[in-house]
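Sanity check

After download, print the first record. It should look like this:
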Amino acid sequence: MSNAGTPLLDSRRCCAVCGKAVLVRESVECSACGAALCPECTGTCEVCGAVVCRDHVMNCGRCGKMLCPQHASRCKSCSGWLCDEHVIRCAVCDGPVCETCHVSCGECGNAVCPGHVAPCGTCQELLCDTCAIRCDRCGICSHPEHLERCELGGEACCPTCRTSCAVCGRLVSVDHTVERGHQVLCVRCRNESARRRHWAVMIVSAVVFAIVLLAYLGLG
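Expected structure tokens:
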């Protein structure tokens, strides 16, 4: 009877890590890649008990716990490995981040990764992408309370991009203003002022014309 294909009890395999020849019955396979290993070159996941090779064993950067690839998470920022107990999930993208790299949003307090946070253009407090509102004019992130709507165009403007009209006091985007001497006017007040000047000129012209006409007729 042939026993071809059946390994003999004393047949050996070479360890994929150190190259040592070990008996088949003493060798172990990595649960991640299937490589043959000697007992000295294995690591055991402290979560599930899986045996893995050195290339597929990770240690949590916080507690040092040995982990297999299935139970290890990698911080999006520093690339450090983390166990489930010490990984923080970004509130925006749900990506893994460590305690050192995560940032707390100054508006909602949620933990986020550095890739989904930006400073408020007014107070510099860090805000997550969910809470930050961008100025419609310059695009800078801001707390909601630091933005005001332009009373002419309706744009949400940060303090840098808005001003008050010197005549009517309206809060307007700087795109809807003009300078007159040392004053800043909204375009509506500028237009009203221009109309008043136009009618004043027309009235004065009409009065002068009437005076001249009456003088001419009187002379006649």
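If your output differs, re-run the checksum step. Summary of this record's structure: The longest strand covers residues 177-180.
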